## 1
Amino acid sequence: GESVGLHLPTLSVQEGDNSIINCAYSNSASDYFIWYKQESGKGPQFIIDIRSNMDKRQGQRVTVLLNKTVKHLSLQIAATQPGDSAVYFCAEMGSGGSYIPTFGRGTSLIVHP
Amino acid sequence: GAGVSQSPRYKVAKRGQDVALRCDPISGHVSLFWYQQALGQGPEFLTYFQNEAQLDKSGLPSDRFFAERPEGSVSTLKIQRTQQEDSAVYLCASSREATRGEQYFGPGTRLTVT
């Protein structure tokens, strides 16, 4: 069936480096994507979203890139900080205004001071 | 302001027991979602409410799972005759809008069935 998955389960970076977390999706009908951050013992926290009519969207220290040709999504975090250490999930919603996100497995980001 | 709260935070149940998990959404939020999150996995959708109406329960894994939101605010997820495979973190989320609004998640209830 359709799925959302991540290329790397764990990413280790040094404080101050830029981080890139990748996500592949297989449902070509998806038209809305969200990145969530989940810290240990907490629920997921919305980071940034992007609609399929966009290729790039920027937030505070974060940028999401969407490549619909290869069905790939990435989250870039600039100047990564120890507080960015968490599990990051991408999620997609299907076309037609679906409000139910399908989450991928997650990538654990570890930031070393 | 207050976020989404869930109680209890941890629940240990013996197989066969019934459990009730509570979610207090952000005041005024129309939409409420329940998710199940297994260890190392992303959340999986269980059910969705718009105010007091349960509009989608397609993710409930069996008829042992039941959710309600009788007054359009607090919601309860009930699991009857718990089984070991029910062990997971149960997350609740609410959103201001009725469709694709940003979802605010609670901390979850970790259920362990022994």
## 2
Amino acid sequence: QKEVEQNSGPLSVPEGAIASLNCTYSDRGSQSFFWYRQYSGKSPELIMSIYSNGDKEDGRFTAQLNKASQYVSLLIRDSQPSDSATYLCAVKTSRGSTLGRLYFGRGTQLTVWP
Amino acid sequence: AAGVIQSPRHLIKEKRETATLKCYPIPRHDTVYWYQQGPGQDPQFLISFYEKMQSDKGSIPDRFSAQQFSDYHSELNMSSLELGDSALYFCASNMGRVETQYFGPGTRLLVL
């Protein structure tokens, strides 16, 4: 089982809609969670980080964390064609020997059509 | 703002050759991480360094080695290259291992 699982997608939404991306993780002690956006052939770009249960909003992006359910999500409101990319969920685990490394999900490919 | 710098950006090698990838972290960042991303795959952690010491080791082949120098830049040395080593190699950096990791633009390695 992978440390981080994402809904596989691909996800296709019309411009202006809400895109919902989901992620679950296996290490219950994990404390740090990140969403990265990656365009094809480019490096991951940080979109959001979240550390506490609840919602965290930044512009059109909202990250949601539920540690009891080991679930992280990313909502993109008013989706734009420029949001079309692969979204990677990443988790930093709590295990001492692996403290710091990120575990990534396989990514969800989002397409926003005009 | 300064970002992570990686060089070279593209590299073509033959099988069994060696390659050296370089990473220059964001100023004042003391931790460097290396990730490998194969085609259509998620990034896989290879190795990390904190204050010039290896801090964690992931799925890095024995043919690969890495180090962090006194100026905090890092080099990933890859020997006896195989076709399967063709991938994007990302370096990321942060401060003190507990902050967000910022990724460099990557080195695209093609092994023929």
